[in-house]
Input
Amino acid sequence: MEMISIEKELRENSYPGRGIIIGKSADGTKAATAYFIMGRSVNSRNRIFVEEGEGIRTQAYNPALLTDPSLVIYAPVRVLGNKTIVTNGDQTDTIYEGMDSQMTFEQSLRSREFEPDGPNYTPRISGIMHIENGSYNYAMSILKSNNGSPDSCNRYTFAYENPAAGEGHFIHTYRCDGNPLPSFEGEPKLIGIMDDMEAFTDMLWSSLNEENKVSLFVRYIDIATGTYETKIVNKNQ
Output
């Protein structure tokens, strides 16, 4: 697979929706992840990321403007031991509870499907990072409607063992803007991961569409020690 520029990819797509990036820093020492949200409606744009325990949660920036919390308020990131879970919905909790009960990432998601927001039927995208004894692997998942039909759920899981330094994968909910919004297609996209978390965060945030971007989370985890650094950027301040 040819590596693409994540900066170019984001600048040329006004509405990829919500996106997950997972990979390894160029020096090979850090497991890296990023999650961003975008919005077209007042309800979607009226959000910020806040830290909660070792993870994060979405929160209404102005509670008076919150009309329907069901698909916009959730914990995108949770940590279970040496596993970090990143998703675009409340399936974070489903994965956490399933893996805590000795189920696999894929098994945990069997009880879920795409979001019930017809006619878009937004895909559920999820990622899991596993760091143990200096080794690192990750997996990504997308649950999507069958070409826009809610009658069938198509399930795809992509696993990456011993990922190469400087490489990562990017998966997002929508191919582009539209009505209805067209779902992501194909494998997660191969992208480069910087060593400098601050520079990576700044690049991602500045590349997202100014009108539609809402919040960005970035975390770099030291593969040898498990310690991590986190950056959160919110458009609503």
Remarks:
- The domain at 6-234 is CATH 3.60.20.20 (Glutamine Phosphoribosylpyrophosphate, subunit 1, domain 1).
